[in-house]
Design goal:
This is Anaerobic benzoate catabolism transcriptional regulator. The protein is mainly α and 66 residues long. It contains 4 helices and no strands. The protein has a single domain, classed as Orthogonal Bundle (434 Repressor (Amino-terminal Domain)), CATH 1.10.260.40. It is globular and about 25 Å long.
Amino acid sequence: MDIKEKFGIRLRTLRKEKGLSQEELALKSGLNRPYISAIEKGKRNVSLEVMEKLAGAFGIQIGQLL
């Protein structure tokens, strides 16, 4: 399992813990739903800027995404 897949699993876990759909996370983060889906599937390389948006949507620090 590579880092993209591990990050995708972590993102999906956090999203479900917060009770958010992919669409809700997309709206909160300013990203689009297909992009969130691709991240969760381990198909996207995520930049620090995207991590910052995702962390902000969850109300956590970037380090807690990892």
